[in-house]
Amino acid sequence: MNVHNAPRPEAAARPVSVAVVGATGAVGVEIRHCLEQAGLNLCRVRLLASPRSAGQVVPFAGGSLMVEALGDDSFQGIDYALFSAGSGISRDYAPRAVAAGAVVIDNSSAFRMDGDIPLVVPEVNPDVIPARPGIIANPNCVAIIATVPLAALDARHRIRRLTIATYQAASGAGAAAMEELRAATAAHLAGDAYAPRVLKHPYAFNLFSHDAAINPATGYNGEEEKVVEETRKILRRPDLHIGITCVRVPVLRAHSMAISVEFDEVVEPDAVRSILSSAPGVRLVDDRDGNHFPMPNEASGQGDVLVGRIRRDVGDPSGRSIALFLAGDQLLKGAALNAVQILQRLVG
Amino acid sequence: MNVHNAPRPEAAARPVSVAVVGATGAVGVEIRHCLEQAGLNLCRVRLLASPRSAGQVVPFAGGSLMVEALGDDSFQGIDYALFSAGSGISRDYAPRAVAAGAVVIDNSSAFRMDGDIPLVVPEVNPDVIPARPGIIANPNCVAIIATVPLAALDARHRIRRLTIATYQAASGAGAAAMEELRAATAAHLAGDAYAPRVLKHPYAFNLFSHDAAINPATGYNGEEEKVVEETRKILRRPDLHIGITCVRVPVLRAHSMAISVEFDEVVEPDAVRSILSSAPGVRLVDDRDGNHFPMPNEASGQGDVLVGRIRRDVGDPSGRSIALFLAGDQLLKGAALNAVQILQRLVG
Questions:
Q1: Are B288 and A260 a contacting pair at CB < 8 A?
Q2: Which domains does chain A carry?
Q3: pLDDT tens-digit profile of B255-270?
Q4: Which end of chain A is more exposed for a tag (fewer CB within 10 A), N or C?
């Protein structure tokens, strides 16, 4: 299915064919939007999904595309396949896409911690992308949003330890969870009962520990384990100490985090502010007089990670810790945009 | 105005007269409910508020009471006056109430850090209440909810440092903020615009750094400063290191917190669980298999602080830190209930 979009002046010269697997999910929708805006010369775009979604016609780049059922022959002639349909689909189909000649950018957790698979945040570690890649993993949303500012800091002042508390949006559990948050809240306001269907716990004006399964040996849930492992891999800091609590809050699509960053040495808050003010992918929102700091509503729809509340962590008597607060769009930089930025690196 | 409630079998023998200042506010309503359930022998209850609220008739203990305008003669014949009408009112009227012979239990921040004023959480430091008290301060809601479990831990294993991220409910900013959260959310769901009136930032499906003014010298806001100072005073640990980030989340009336507790020594998670399982005012909610941990919806309406997610903070390489998550009703234990529990100690 060809995309009938007029050549754009900023378009890269090389025409590329792209498949999106999971094209109708919350992330898939955003991947389509990001592809429209990426300035790529897209000669072909295939939108792939489950048989349930096949046949849907969706607008794309001024034209329209029909969603096709994912199958064995979905990747013939495809240069790049962006997967966002869960780990099971990725494990099954990503190797087939590679065998068919495509480079896979995979948003699932299936391959992220595979030693042979690069785990990429373009602002942080684009150099780990090999000359002839097969599968490239798109990291966990919290790990992406956290590492964008943290990598810039770690490059100047070595980080020793992170203490993270997250405020995670519904979008991390998909479009159905976002809809459940809306529906449960509407029911609550109307005084009606609402039985959770997507998430385990009531979501209206409520929050809860992330619902990923708990590792009985440690007490950490799967989300927390991913963030710890992936942050270390992205930052190439296997020795980094990370304590984390992941919490879902009744917010639709941007994740926030309170982070205490302990450095090897005393670092002034102004030095942190200065580094972050020129860090790629970061926007400082740190207005103390106006009491204006990163908020999910302002992060939503933005590609940058908003960072503020930069101050000494007075809980660390050594003076080596800086506290900060950040917010980033879970669907964009936390997923779709990061994947398309990887694609841009590959094509560019 | 007399309360026509039949003598209750559990009622304390001594009849007491009580005034509630700020009786129509979010906390005032809960103070009335707590007084009804406290098993006190209330011979007289005066409900005091601004002239705007005077004349309202509210149900109380099976009868009804009329709200009166706070004035110079409001405290004649009153044994105990519970203030919850803001610091200005407390500064003006609490000394007058004491001069009239009443003991004041003050929920504002006006006197909390006064060296001569006891700051009391009944489960933690009832012994600081003097034999002939004048003003007793009810602590900040976050400080109360945090210190209930932390005091039990500190009594057994000395705490060195706390790292706290809060998830604070609308109720901390009063009944109008709770209503704003509901109204802003309803407008958002309807696709309508809503201009914030009570809080500075949009609240529908959004969160933001606590709106108390920022100390320009440190970057901490007034709420964070209160929690640090009051926690140290309540725990009698002026040396305790506390780093904190206070955030308002779109939750109606219970505060949650992610806390990393660093002890002087290595303490096992099971030891923490054991101590908390018998700590007064604490209820363990720590079901890893069921992924069921403290949530504000389950803390709402409860007197106990819910504590769970007890695990080693793997971010601390020394092994001396334990991570936990808790939730407590901001209006009850965080304010009204704690004040009435102080009253019970005084009467009992």
A1: no
A2: 15-110 (3.40.50.720), 143-330 (3.30.360.10)
A3: 999 999 999 999 999 9
A4: C
